[in-house]
Amino acid sequence: MKRICVFAGSNVGASPEFEQGAVRLGQLLAEQNIELVYGGSKIGLMGSIADSVLQSGGKVTGVMPKNLFKREIIHPLVTEFHETETMHERKALMSELADGYIALPGGIGTFEELFEVLCWAQIGIHKKPIGALNVLNYYDPVSELIKKAATAGFMPQANVDLLIIEKQPEMLLEKMFNQNKGIRTEEEIDL
Question: Is-annotated flag, keyword Nucleus (predicted)?
């Protein structure tokens, strides 16, 4: 994986551990030469992870639709910035640029982005690994909801494993890399 798209809150949350998790993940991405693709903002956990990647010598690509410029403040130091017309274009471009996805704690927007890429994986649009950093057990209810959907017969049990949930960013990245093994990239298929 060369680029990971991170979905994150536009707030830092009520506990310092949320921001600490974002900062540690950013350091790991930079250390492993994995570029961050994210929403382009300098506020909230989005800004925290971008700052961490940049301060650790990594690359950051921000993607933001024009109509959010007043609410989400563009990070001035990103390596690359893409402006889109709509939120749909933003998500499509972030997905196109990424080799995997990670959700940090966040609100409805973060949930929506996470569930969209899970849906895309379920119906075969992509085979990229999807993770959630489970800081302070934040994603436990999501895990339970997904398991309930399978046991209730709304999705195959195998699809529960589409989402990798881990408390430690190191373990999360390791499991995502392991899941990604054996999946050939478009470049490899064209060879």
Answer: no
Q: Which residue has the tokens 């994150």?
A: 8
Place of tokens 């849906």: 119
- What is the Cα 37 distance to its own chain's centre? 8
Domains and CATH numbers, the chain: 3-190 (3.40.50.450)
Question: Quick one: tokens of 115?
Answer: 């569930």
Query: Which residue in 43, 23, 7 sits closest to 131, CA to CA?
Result: 7
User: pTM score, two decimals?
Assistant: 0.92
Residue type present at position 91: K
pLDDT digits (tens, 9 = 90+) for 73-126: 889 999 999 999 999 999 999 999 999 999 999 999 999 999 999 999 999 999
What is the token pair recorded at 31? Answer: 């250390």
DSSP label at residue 28 = H
Helix (H) or strand (E) holding 92: helix 87-97
**DSSP H helical segments within the chain, as ranges?**
16-31, 44-55, 87-97, 108-122, 140-151, 169-180, 186-190
Structure tokens at 167: 């408390």
